[in-house]
Design brief:
The chain has 230 residues and is an alpha+beta fold. Among the domains are: 65-129, Antifreeze-like/N-acetylneuraminic acid synthase C-terminal domain (Type Iii Antifreeze Protein Isoform Hplc 12, Alpha-Beta Complex), CATH 3.90.1210; 138-168 and 179-226. It is built from 3 helices and 9 strands. The protein has helices spanning 34-62, 105-108, 207-218, and strands at residues 65-71, 86-92, 112-113, 128-129, 138-145, 160-165, 181-190, 199-206, 222-226. It is elongated and about 100 Å long. The chain starts with 33 loop residues before the first helix and ends with a strand.
Length: 230
């Protein structure tokens, strides 16, 4: 009769009533999907390549530049343009802008500013007058004005003025001539006052008006009025 042997046996305590024994399982991190990683790498590479191509295109577009003239300092209206007034800037091609090319610099020097020029602005041909300060279709007239007949202290080259001609001495002005003759002009140069206080002002007027203005100015019958904004 065999006897039961209890050697090398371990008695496992019974779980509490109501508990169920569950095997312990090791938690294993899932291996990252290699295919998905490769897809992200391919997409990232394509995006980098597209960005590089776009950047190269921008560089190529920005490389289409031309040298033009800009103002290195402020230039008052009527003043001659000198080499020190100009500087060269590189400008991208733009159909809306028509600045003076650097190749025309020699033709610009010596011309006068038709209006006040501001430092840093681009120079255009419309901002310039001829070397004598005249635009096409203009004539230069010297008007000697007596003291009190012009705001001499306020006159500057480029200022817009009206030349008002007084009636001749002894001339009777009728109703149809109630307004004095008036011609529009632009100051080119203001001379120094004489000992009597008279001042010679060089004014650019239309060719058609130059004869009348010169005749009245020689008779000392022209007064100069500074216009608003002039």
């Amino acid at each position: 009769m065999l006897k039961s042997s209890t050697k090398n046996r371990t008695t496992v305590p019974a779980p509490p009533a109501g508990d169920v024994m569950r095997p312990e399982l090791d938690i294993i991190d899932p291996e990252p999907p290699r295919r998905r990683r490769r897809s992200f790498m391919v997409i990232g590479g394509v995006m980098v390549l597209a960005g590089a191509i776009g950047f190269a295109g921008l560089l190529n577009a920005s490389g289409e530049r031309s040298d033009v003239l800009a103002l290195a300092r402020d230039v008052p209206a009527g003043q001659k343009i000198t080499a020190e007034d100009l500087r060269v800037v590189a400008l991208s091609a733009d159909a809306g802008l028509k600045p003076v090319a650097v190749t025309q610099k020699d033709t610009v020097i010596g011309r006068r500013a038709a209006a006040a020029l501001t430092e840093g602005s681009l120079l255009t041909s419309r901002q310039l007058t001829g070397k004598g300060g005249l635009k096409p279709g203009e004539a230069l007239v010297a008007v000697e004005v007596k003291r009190g007949m012009a705001p001499v202290d306020a006159l500057r080259p480029g200022a817009a003025v009206s030349l008002v001609s007084r009636p001749k001495e002894g001339e009777v002005v009728g109703k149809e001539q109630s307004e004095l003759a008036e011609v529009q002009g632009r100051v080119v140069k203001v001379g120094a006052p004489s000992s009597s206080g008279d001042v010679v002002v060089q004014v650019a007027v239309a060719d058609a008006d130059s004869g009348v203005v010169a005749s009245d100015a020689s008779a000392g019958r022209v007064a100069i009025v500074l216009k608003s904004g002039g």
